[in-house]
Design goal:
With about 625 residues, the chain is α/β, with parallel strands linked by helices. The chain is built from 25 helices and ten strands. About 30% of the residues are buried.
Length: about 625
């Protein structure tokens, strides 16, 4: 079978843990018309695919011609069977022909690689963008009930696995099949008796190599698990939050020891992986070295026995052709698993593509600008809401909630933890759909409006501010990419953050760090407020925007919120009652229902739940007009 170079040895050990892979494949979802849908992905590139197929077939067929030329070189040019001196003219022509075939084959290979890589990666890119776009359209509830890692796995691992299938598997199957068939035909043409000997010995070699690959695949799987654990430790401990936690509890040495132990395990597995199968490999080497030797022996007996003419060229050409059979046969043995794996990957991807967003625009949806009511009016009419994963018999998160926020009004919601206050913020911009009742925006049911136009008219400031690992200016321009520097400055001055930004050495070009860790909580909140100001929406939703801040930061941020809320419809969810005392109307929510409504003074006078919440605050004096800060109530 010829010697086995580095590439051949790598191929012998290449593979996966087939048992584990088949288990994963069996867990793949069932997708109707999967094959037709996969074929549809290639339709835009069918011309290139046809050309690639032709090149693969031609390249594989040409690959068996040089051994036939070797036979002619030995038997007709170097050592003519008719006797006499070497025929140098014929030798030159045959050698030039071989070199020409090698050059032609190389050009075909480069062209084929470019075509397959282009088609495979473009199809993969199309699929990745299509999946990402589809996930962007999914409702908020999908992301609250699905792990981020699972979504990332679909986008990265599954689509990445498909890329390998698209660029390698199909052409590999076609090329290997043509190579095996053409090599067997060439072997028969050279000498059918030697072909029988080679075919008899071939299965033993293939089985031994497959066994080697399986052993290494199992160790490779353990190595990958160990590597994943190392990666997990790195992500957990070297992130900003992880470092802060380990330093806070003085656990740096413990974390280093945990990493060292897993690293030692990784080193051990890498050594095992390098040494595994060496005994099998020795057997493979013996068999591979023995096959040509056996052929030489058989050829000798045939020559001595006078059963047929076998020349030196015949033997050399035959062993050369036979050496080309090993890798194609190994590749074809993996065809079934590769195809099953690719089917599983495609099924997982199409499963996500087939997800139907729970919230979509109606076919006749209109823009907010075409709504009959005044811009900025928000109204709830007997709204009932249950989260999608809630039990049907459970208490609704909101139960018969009705209120109206007129343009320019400040409406506040307060109440104990779990009362359902934050859900109001989700329903107003239609991030969730009301189970019963109506949510109206500018006088129209939100289900009759386009989602894009609703969100365009709403600004949200939440308790947990999300900032990208980018400059302050880039984070601000997320709301308005074409905002000028003057607009940035104006928004930041209104949000009481311009002075703090200018104290940084690089000003607005300062990188805020992961999730804004270089900034204080108050600074992050004010940047979020400035970002909303750049958007300049008529409706503002404040979801406990100051609950996590200290008293000083709260006052600065609250002043910024008062600035941004001026002239806008504002719906705020209060953590500290001191932040909503000036609201036009305060709704007290308990167990999903509005139990009290009125101004701050009216609600205190009623002596109901609002008054109880006020009393429970350590700094209730602040609510009464004194300087002592208020203690926060429980968050929703």
């Amino acid at each position: 079978m010829g010697g086995m170079g580095p590439s051949g040895r790598a191929a012998a050990f290449r593979g996966v843990d087939e048992g584990r892979q088949r288990q994963l494949n069996a867990q793949a979802p069932e997708v109707v018309d999967l094959r037709a849908r996969v074929v549809g992905l290639f339709r835009p590139y069918r011309g290139r695919i046809l050309l690639t197929t032709i090149l693969v077939v031609v390249g594989a067929a040409i690959g068996v011609v040089p051994p036939l030329l070797v036979q002619s070189i030995f038997d007709q040019a170097l050592f003519p069977t008719t006797g006499g001196a070497p025929d140098l003219s014929l030798l030159l022509r045959l050698v030039l022909t071989m070199i020409g075939l090698f050059l032609f084959s190389a050009v075909l290979g480069v062209t084929q690689t470019w075509l397959t890589s282009t088609v495979g990666n473009r199809v993969t890119g199309d699929l990745r963008v299509r999946l990402f776009d589809h996930l962007q359209a999914m409702e908020l509830g999908f992301f609250t009930r699905t792990k981020t890692g699972v979504i990332q796995s679909r986008l990265q691992n599954d689509v990445g696995g498909v890329s390998d299938v698209l660029t390698n598997t199909i052409t590999s199957i076609l090329g290997n099949t043509v190579t095996v068939i053409s090599a067997l035909v060439a072997m028969v043409l050279i000498d059918w008796r030697l072909t029988i000997i080679a075919v008899i010995l071939m299965p033993a070699l293939v089985l031994v190599q497959r066994r080697v690959g399986q052993v290494r695949a199992r160790i490779a799987g353990q190595t990958q698990e160990s590597l994943s654990e190392l990666t997990s430790i790195t992500q957990e401990t070297l992130s900003v939050s992880g470092i802060l936690l380990s330093k806070s509890f003085n656990r740096q040495r413990a974390e280093s020891e945990r990493y060292r132990v897993e690293n030692t395990n990784q080193v051990r597995l890498q050594v095992r992986r390098a040494m595994s199968g060496q005994g099998f490999f020795g057997v493979v080497q013996v068999i591979m070295a023995s096959v040509p030797a056996v052929i030489y022996l058989v050829a000798g007996y045939l020559i001595v026995g006078g059963t047929g003419v076998i020349t030196a060229g015949t033997v050399v050409a035959f062993t050369t052709v036979q050496a080309r059979l090993l890798q194609p046969l190994m590749g074809l043995m993996r065809v079934a698993l590769d195809l099953q794996t690719s089917r599983a990957l495609f099924a997982r991807i199409f499963e996500y593509l087939d997800l139907t967003p729970a919230i979509v625009d109606a076919p006749d949806a209109i823009e907010v600008s075409a709504a009959p009511g005044p811009l900025g009016r928000v109204e709830f009419r007997e709204v009932v809401f249950r989260y999608p994963d809630a039990a049907p018999t459970s208490r609704p998160t909101l139960d018969g909630v009705s209120f109206v926020a007129e343009p320019g009004q400040h409406i506040a919601f307060v109440g104990p933890s779990g009362a359902g206050k934050t859900t109001v913020v989700y329903l107003a911009p239609r991030l969730y759909e009301a189970s019963e009742g109506e949510v109206l925006f500018s006088g129209a049911d939100v289900r009759t409006l386009t989602q894009e136009s609703i969100v365009q008219n709403i600004g949200i400031v939440s308790q947990e501010t999300y900032l990208f690992h980018a400059s302050i200016a880039d984070n601000l321009r997320y709301a308005k990419p074409d905002a000028t520097d003057a607009e940035l400055l104006a928004a930041c001055r209104a949000a009481n953050i311009h002075g703090a930004i200018m104290r940084f050495e690089r000003g607005y070009d300062t990188i805020v760090g992961e999730r804004g860790y270089r900034l204080s909580g108050g600074e992050k909140q004010r940047i979020a407020i400035a970002r909303v100001l750049l958007k300049d929406p008529p409706v503002l939703l404040l979801d406990e925007a100051t609950s996590a801040l200290d008293t000083v930061s709260e006052r600065v941020v609250q002043e910024a919120l008062d600035n941004v809320a001026r002239g806008r419809t504002t719906i705020s969810i209060a953590h500290r009652l001191s932040t909503v005392v000036t609201a036009d109307t305060i709704h007290v929510v308990d167990a999903g229902r509005i139990v009290e409504s009125g101004t701050h003074t009216e609600l205190l006078a009623q002596g109901g739940l609002y008054a109880e919440l006020a009393v429970e605050q350590i700094a209730a004096a602040t609510i009464m007009g004194m300087e002592t800060p208020a203690r926060p109530i429980e968050g929703s």
